[in-house]
Amino acid sequence: MLLVLGGCGCLVVIIAFIIIGIVFLCGLLSYGFFGSVREPANVVGEHLKEARSKNYEASYEYLSVSLKKEMPFSNFVGHIKANLSIYDSKSHTFGEVKIYNETSTVTGVVENKDGKKTNVMFKLVKEQGSWKISEFDFGIEDMGNELLEEARGNMPSTEIGSS
Asked: Do the beta carbons of residue 67 and residue 47 sit within 8 Å?
């Protein structure tokens, strides 16, 4: 086929490779961007997974230095046991991730094994290049509108859909 087209065939092939290269590069760039935006949500998901598996030490490692100072390990384990509807959950969905410099807010819903859904908000900070949970609130609509507004729109952000 290329012999019939002569020089034009080579040009078509070159243009096709250029287009494929551009599409591939755009895909890589968007994956890098959205992958980095999802990172705080992934940290929260792993934190919940480790707690659900009763691997409390691993779950505790997802907390920031400042939160660990406020909540020693024994208190953390007590906190998990007092909030089993969150930590022994069936599923979680994070509908919003906001990142502003070295801080992030992850909001979503945790569904317990009985089907009850609870709104959650986790704040994270970057420590030594890794996201760590610095604060969390459960049932945020029950705590007042100002907290929910803070979670949803107080900082300039990059947002993604459900994960």
From this structure: no
CATH number at 29 reads: 3.10.450.100
pLDDT digits over 58-98, tens only? 999 999 999 999 999 999 999 888 888 788 778 888 888 99
CB atoms within 10 A of CB 124: 28
Tell me whether residue 148 is in a domain.
yes
pTM of the model: 0.65
Question: Domain for residue 129, yes or no?
Answer: yes
The two three-digit tokens of residue 68, written as one number: 């660990």
Tell me the pLDDT tens digit for each residue of 17-62: 787 767 666 555 544 444 466 899 999 999 999 998 999 999 999 9
Alpha helices (H) along 53-99 = 56-60, 65-70, 73-82, 84-87
Residue 18 lies in a domain: yes
